[in-house]
């Protein structure tokens, strides 16, 4: 049974429970099976690449929309050594609709809707909402976490600069 962390995050000040471990910098990045926009299975970890995992509750909310657009802009500048992945419990069809409507080209979208494997492995599964919490994970080329941020208030933005700097340092 996965651990539960009561009050680990809030939404509009109301405490919520996260299921899964609280990961730390230096931990091996857990591998979780997600679904791509084409419904094919995909992994949360890519060997030999630096990866920014942007975990969000839903693309159809203002902060998630802004966060994904910001990482799309930044990813376009980072080159092939860094891959930015947006992960949510949105259906792949919804992710594809959002991606097309916003002309995103530098972000990979992966869906956790099927069994919340990512949320449970990375400790971002919000028990009360069956959504992934807002968090940023940077995985280095060796598959270890170089940066971890669990955003305490789900409606707040993450520290973009800290994540981007960690990714650049990991290259």
Sheet with the most strands? 5 strands, mixed
CATH class: Alpha Beta
CATH topology (fold) name: Glutaredoxin
Share in β-strands: 25-35%
Count of separate DSSP helical elements: 4
List how many beta strands DSSP finds: 11
Query: Globular, elongated, flat, extended or rod-shaped: what is the shape?
Result: globular
Tally of discrete structural domains: 1
Helix content percent band: 25-40%
- Name the structural class: alpha+beta
Distance between the termini: 35 Å
Assigned CATH architecture: 3-Layer(aba) Sandwich
Element string (H = helix, E = strand): EEEEEHEHEHEEEEH
Q: What radius of gyration results from the CA coordinates?
A: 14 Å
Strand order of the largest sheet: 7-6-5-10-11
Question: Which consecutive residue ranges, at least 5 long each, have pLDDT under 50?
Answer: none
Q: What's the CATH superfamily, by name?
A: Glutaredoxin
| Residue-averaged pLDDT | 95
